[in-house]
Specification:
The complex is a heterodimer of chains A (136) and B (687). Chain A is of the alpha/beta class. Chain A is 44% helix and 17% strand. Chain A has five helices and five strands; from the N terminus they run βαβαβαβαβα. Chain A has helices spanning 13-25, 38-47, 66-75, 93-102, 114-130; strands at residues 5-9, 31-35, 54-57, 84-88, 106-109. Chain B has 687 residues and is an alpha+beta fold. Chain B folds into four domains: 54-161, 2-Layer Sandwich (Beta-Lactamase); 164-280, PAS domain (Beta-Lactamase, 2-Layer Sandwich), CATH 3.30.450.20; 286-512, 2-Layer Sandwich (Beta-Lactamase), CATH 3.30.450; 537-686, Histidine kinase-like ATPase, C-terminal domain (Heat Shock Protein 90, 2-Layer Sandwich). Chain B has helices at 2-53, 72-78, 98-111, 155-160, 165-178, 196-202, 206-209, 223-234, 282-301, 307-322, 366-374, 426-501, 508-535, 550-560, 582-598, 654-664; strands spanning 57-61, 67-70, 113-122, 128-139, 145-154, 182-187, 190-194, 240-248, 254-265, 271-280, 328-333, 338-344, 360-362, 378-380, 398-406, 409-418, 546-549, 567-570, 577-580, 605-613, 617-624, 668-674, 678-686. In chain B, strands 13-12-11-16-15-14 form a six-stranded antiparallel β-sheet, sandwiched between helices. In chain B, strands 2-1-5-4-3 form a five-stranded antiparallel β-sheet. In chain B, α12 (426-501) runs antiparallel to α13, α14 (550-560) packs across α15 (582-598) and α15 runs antiparallel to α16 (654-664). The longest helix of chain B is centred in the C-terminal third of the chain and has 76 residues, at 426-501. The two termini of chain B are 30 Å apart. The chains are: A alpha/beta (136), B alpha+beta (687). The interface between A and B is medium-sized, with 23 and 28 residues.
Chain lengths: 136, 687
């Protein structure tokens, strides 16, 4: 099975650690690109040296938040086709609605328990592994 | 809030006062109108008495042609008697003359009169007669046509029989002497006979009037018109005319008259005599003038909100319409205890509409200053006998002074002086009082309007603030959702990693402590979720209006909630469909039902939903046979974060969400409970 590459956009260090540890624990060897906020993520993407297969992002971040990032992403004729999935603690109806309006590939709510989190991440990764993804 | 209520109450009071004043005013105006109408009625009566005594047929018909009055001569001529049968003139017009008759009628409506209409009619016994008709319209006070009157002359007979003028004159003499109209018979416009009424009007004796040219008795102003009409009559173009003119009495005073002149022709058709009816319409004229003044002032006040604008209307309209020499409006200046002129008929103003050389009157000085103090209107017939009068540039002999009163305080004074003694009448006083009342009403309304506008802008501001704080609250909830929940997730992950890393070192006690720690995290997470749910209950973004099937909602709850085997959950088969937001209704029932389930301590539990339809509400109840709630807690439980049971299992948010949802639908909630036996929550939702 081919390896996927994820761009994980998250400002919380522990969350980044959680994601990495989860993948490791699950035995995945997918490549992870990291960005601390939307602005950083866009910089990485605009370089176009290495484009991820899937973007995972938080909503509340400093500088450029998740929704602002999504708006910019969807305005780029090239980058807009990369599936973006929200990973957040907010089950706010407004956030959800806005995100789907902008065009997301999924909306994952972070569960409280770490073990539940691992289970959710496993399903997400499994899902994208059975998908055909665009390799830029 | 309190201020606002006070302001609104004050406005209401003012409005009430203003209304009472308006009613008062309306009443007095109505009675004035009635008087005028009565006067008119009596004049019509006089007309009729007069015409009923003349030899010619006289009829009055309504606008549809129905004859409503006819004298004996008319009855004889037509053969109909309207006391016995209905008569419509349209029905008796000779067929060939129909079109001509209709045209003449149209002309009557247009011009107000027609003369020398000649046509044939059918009498009751189908005789055809030639008639000559002179007709005019009768209007009511509003100028609406109410009827037409006409003198109908049988010219068939006139052709055959020579009229014995001497005999007629004798009969006329009797009528003439008893008439309340002034009647003058003139030859070549020189008086040859007058009646008593005319002599009384003019203050001259019959002898004094004999031989006097008619024009000498009236003022110059209408002479030209009079001569023009007279020559038309001489030329045979008209037989009768009427005009308004002013007569001069022996003592030099004048009166306004409505004069009707009819030509009496000899057998050759030449004018032999002029017969004039003179009616003193001074009183009627003045009354109408005052009514008009009041009406035009009322109209001009509309939309004027400051006393300055209104004052100018008063000064100009009153002086112009009532023929006052002047009219000044003063405004009370409380601080300096003076009256300041703010408007004056004919006063010069600068570009800011400020009067140049305006008048200032100290309180208590002169008649104006006195009225400002007493608040009582004054009518001074002779200022030389009034010690209060202060001579300005020259003495004016009569004065009328009326205060403008708002909320029992004099705010202004309307004043007019006249060089003649006894110029102002009680009617003038009444009129100016009415005007002052009008001003008071208008200004009170204006003040109320200002207050209302202010209150509205305050409301608007309040609403803006509310909107802002609502938005802030939403943002706050948003931040709470992320910033408080994220650390909990981190702590949980860190504990797990710690446990994994030190698996070998940690004993059971340590692991138990970590489990407790994790439990607390879960509680905290639930609490945050609860707050978020609570804050989003009335969030308009997510609120929808749809038909919610309550049985469907309960069915769904049954699948979501964990209901232990020993608890029997039941609800009626027939439940309503209500118009609301489904999520909220679900939240409402779910919270109540899960509460009920949680607090059941019996071996056989029972949770029951019931329903009843009321006139304006849907009434539901959720009852359980659980631990029950002590009376002292019945109010407390609806407050946020209040919990009675085992801490940790409940967050104390559920019932406050319930209450908020019910309030959202204008309903209410209460409970009945007995400790140890169970609790029933009743709630009503507005249909």
């Amino acid at each position: 099975m081919e390896n996927l590459s994820f761009l994980f956009i998250e400002d919380d260090e522990i969350e980044v650690l959680k994601f990495k540890k989860s993948l490791k624990k699950l035995g995945f060897t997918h490549r992870i690109l990291e960005a601390r906020n939307g602005e950083e993520a866009l910089e990485i993407l605009k370089k176009k040296e290495e484009l991820p297969n899937v973007i995972l992002l938080d909503l509340n971040m400093p500088k450029m938040n998740g929704l602002e990032f999504l708006k910019e992403l969807k305005e780029d004729s090239h980058l807009r086709y990369i599936p973006a999935i929200i990973v957040t603690t907010s089950n706010n109806h407004q956030d959800m609605l806005e995100s789907y309006k902008l065009g997301i590939a999924g909306y994952i709510i972070k569960p409280l328990r770490y073990e539940d989190y691992i289970k959710k991440i496993q399903r997400v990764v499994d899902y994208w592994m059975v998908n055909e993804v665009i390799n830029f | 809030m309190k201020d606002k209520i006070q302001a609104l109450e004050l406005a209401l009071q003012n409005e009430k006062k203003a209304r009472e004043k308006a009613e008062e005013l309306l009443l007095s105006r109505t009675s004035e109108l009635l008087e005028v109408r009565e006067a008119l009625q009596s004049k019509i009566q006089e007309h009729i008495v007069f015409f009923e005594n003349i030899l010619d047929s006289y009829i009055v018909m309504d606008t549809m042609g129905n004859v409503i009055k006819m004298n004996e001569a008319a009855k004889k001529l037509f053969g109909y008697d309207i006391n016995k049968e209905e008569l419509n003139v349209v029905n008796i017009i000779y067929r060939d003359d129909f079109e001509y008759a209709m045209n003449s009628f149209a002309k009557l409506i247009e011009d107000g009169f027609f003369q020398n209409y000649e046509a044939r009619i059918y009498t009751k016994n189908k005789e055809v007669k030639w008639v000559q008709i002179n007709s005019s319209l009768i209007y009511n006070e509003e100028g609406v046509i109410i009827a037409a009157q006409g003198i109908v002359r049988d010219i068939t007979a006139a052709k055959e029989n020579a009229v014995d003028f001497e005999e007629q004159r004798e009969q006329l003499g009797a009528i003439v002497d008893h008439s309340t109209f002034g009647i003058v018979l003139a030859q070549n416009r020189k008086i040859i006979k007058t009646n008593n009424a005319f002599q009384k009007l003019m203050q001259y004796s019959e002898e004094e009037l004999l031989g006097i040219p008619i024009d000498e008795l009236s003022l110059e102003e209408a002479h030209e018109e009079s001569r023009r009409l007279y020559s038309k009559m001489i030329a045979g173009e008209i037989n009768q005319y009427s005009l308004k003119e002013r007569y001069k009495r022996k003592d030099g005073t004048t009166f306004i008259s409505k004069t009707s002149v009819t030509g009496v022709r000899d057998s050759f058709g030449n004018i032999k005599y002029q017969l004039a009816f003179i009616e003193d319409v001074t009183v009627k004229h003045k009354r109408r003038l005052m009514l008009n003044t009041l009406n035009s002032l009322t109209r001009s006040f509309i939309g004027k909100l400051t006393i300055h604008d209104i004052a100018w209307e008063i000064a100009n309209v009153t002086a112009r319409d009532l023929e006052f020499e002047d009219c000044v409006v003063y405004l009370v200046n409380k601080e300096e205890n003076i009256l300041e002129q703010i408007a004056g008929y004919g006063a010069k103003v600068d570009e800011n509409k400020e009067i140049i050389d305006k008048l200032y009157i100290p309180f208590g000085k002169g008649i104006v200053g006195d009225v400002a103090l007493t608040g009582k209107a004054e009518l001074v017939h002779d200022t030389s006998k009034d010690p209060r009068y202060v001579v300005d540039d020259k003495r004016r002999y009569s004065e009328i002074t009326v205060p403008i009163i708002i909320e029992e305080k004099v705010v202004g004074v309307i004043d007019s002086e006249n060089s003649a003694k006894n110029f102002f009448t009680k009617e003038h006083l009444r009129l100016l009082k009415n005007v002052a009342n009008l001003v008071s009403i208008q200004l009170t309304n204006a003040v109320n309007l200002e207050r209302r506008i202010e209150a509205e802008s305050q409301n608007k501001e309040l609403l803006e603030n509310l909107k802002r704080s609502n938005k802030e609250l939403r943002d706050f909830a948003h931040i709470v959702s992320h910033d408080l929940k994220s650390p909990l997730r981190s702590i949980n992950a860190l504990i797990s990693w710690f446990q994994e890393d030190y698996e070998d070192v940690l004993d059971e006690d340590a692991n138990e402590t970590f489990d407790k720690l994790n439990n607390k995290l879960e509680q905290m997470d639930a609490l945050i979720d609860g707050i978020l749910r609570y804050s989003s209950v009335s969030d308009k973004y997510t609120l929808s209006q749809q038909e919610v099937d309550v049985s469907e909602v309960l069915k769904e709850i049954q699948t979501i909630l964990y209901i232990p085997e020993h608890i029997k959950f039941s609800y009626p088969e027939k439940l309503p469909k209500i118009n609301a937001d489904k999520t909220r209704i679900k939240q409402l029932f779910q919270n109540l039902i899960s509460n009920a389930i949680n607090y059941i301590d019996k071996e056989e539990g029972k949770v029951e939903v019931t329903f009843k339809e009321l006139k304006h509400y849907w009434k539901f109840s959720v009852s359980d046979n659980g631990v029950g709630i002590a009376k002292s807690y019945h109010d407390k439980i609806f407050k946020i974060f209040e919990t009675l049971g085992r801490k940790g299992k409940s967050t104390g948010i559920g019932l406050s969400i319930v209450k908020k949802i019910i309030e959202l639908y204008n309903g209410e909630i209460y409970l009945e409970s007995e400790e140890g036996k169970g609790t029933t929550f009743f709630f009503k939702l507005k249909k």
